[in-house]
Amino acid sequence: MPKPFKSIIECKELRGKYVFLRASINVPIVDGEVLNQFRVTRGLATINYLVNQGARVILCGHIGSDGEQTAEPVARLLGAHVPILFSPEVAGVVSKNLRDTLEDGQVLMLENVRKDPREKKNDANFARELADMADIYVNDAFAASHREHASLVGVPQFIPSYVGLNFVHEYEELSKALNPKSPSLFMLGGAKFDTKMPLVEKFIDLYDELFIGGALANDLFKAKGYEIGASLISSSDLTGSTLLENNKIILPVDVIVESDAGSRVTTPDDVHPNERIVDAGPLTTTMLSTRIAQAQMVLWNGPLGSYEEGYEEQTVAVAKLVAESEAYSVIGGGDTVAAIEALCCQEQYNFLSTAGGAMLTFLEKGTLPAIEVLKSTD
């Protein structure tokens, strides 16, 4: 089946062309240093391809949600791999002047695109300003492509548009996850059941079993009438939901709870009012181990507990089980991938997605706004 976009490899003559590359650079930066290079490293294939083809690359991306952080540390990091200049602004006189100094095979990196408020507003004039800097547009930021922002859906309306090598890879691998071999297991963690309900309803039909963990499980525990204490829940009320009776849905069989008295392992129906659920328990990991060992496809997004608070033990344990299994594994979500990186065994998985929210949106809808705009401008 043909893809709904053109890869940059299909563009035959790139030497001397100005290429606006929307990259995925949303990485953690502390004290001016990039803490996790996963997304940047995955984007190097497209950057190197363009540089080797003699393109003049104008690289653009976002860091954080509020536009406060600078992209300069990412430019320093990339400077170890490709010849790069950095502009302290997004669109403007400085950027245009630096753009005019580019030679074949050089890269100009623009400042964090979200520093301009017009980016999130998908302002057409802003998109035109960015497009006017280049001859060709390339989207390699799959992880951001569920957003209807100017650099993602606005720019491609003005100049010939393609996707990068990582974008193609993401699309191909996540498409495989939509057609799993049986037995198949989908593990979904994290929070916000209200936004993930359509995904759950779709994947009950696609997968043999669907394990729901993290804060998502708390919503189902509450709907079952269990005491959940101070545990994180969504705004959804799942009381009476058909999910409660569906034998494809698997929930944690034990949980770790925390209170002023400390933490303990218990069953989901034995949580006290002063406690909160912070992780799945060890018996849950044991229960999952059999299913993971038998599966031909494992799709996983989201941790089993409050990973950012340090409750990572069961998420890491499950990551190890998936690494050791024979299943075809497709995994995404920042905390999930972080657990895998902590094990230093990335090569033991078939595919690690750079995306979190975009992965879930693609799995639910089979497309993304940034893909749809490429269809409409073809």
Write the layout of secondary structure elements.
Elements: E1 18-22, E2 29-30, E3 33-34, H1 38-52, E4 56-60, H2 72-78, E5 84-86, H3 93-101, E6 107-109, H4 124-131, E7 136-139, H5 150-154, E8 161-163, H6 165-177, E9 184-188, H7 193-206, E10 209-212, H8 214-223, E11 249-250, E12 255-259, E13 262-266, E14 276-280, H9 282-294, E15 297-301, H10 313-324, E16 328-332, H11 334-343, E17 351-352, H12 357-365, H13 369-376
Parallel strand pairs: 1-4, 1-7, 4-6, 5-6, 7-8, 9-10, 9-15, 10-11, 15-16, 16-17
Antiparallel strand pairs: 2-3, 12-13, 12-14
Describe the overall structure.
The protein is 35% helix and 17% strand. It has helices at 38-52, 72-78, 93-101, 124-131, 150-154, 165-177, 193-206, 214-223, 282-294, 313-324, 334-343, 357-365, 369-376; strands spanning 18-22, 29-30, 33-34, 56-60, 84-86, 107-109, 136-139, 161-163, 184-188, 209-212, 249-250, 255-259, 262-266, 276-280, 297-301, 328-332, 351-352. The protein is elongated, with a radius of gyration of 22 Å. The chain has two domains: 8-167 and 367-376, Phosphoglycerate kinase, N-terminal domain (Rossmann fold); 178-344, 3-Layer(aba) Sandwich (Rossmann fold). It has a six-stranded parallel sheet with strand order 5-6-4-1-7-8, sandwiched between helices. A six-stranded parallel sheet has the order 11-10-9-15-16-17, sandwiched between helices. With 378 residues, the protein is α/β, with parallel strands linked by helices. Strand 5, helix 3 (93-101) and strand 6 (107-109) form a beta-alpha-beta unit. It starts with 17 loop residues before the first strand and ends with a helix. The mean pLDDT is 95. Helix 9 (282-294) runs parallel beside helix 10 (313-324) and helix 10 (313-324) crosses helix 11 (334-343).
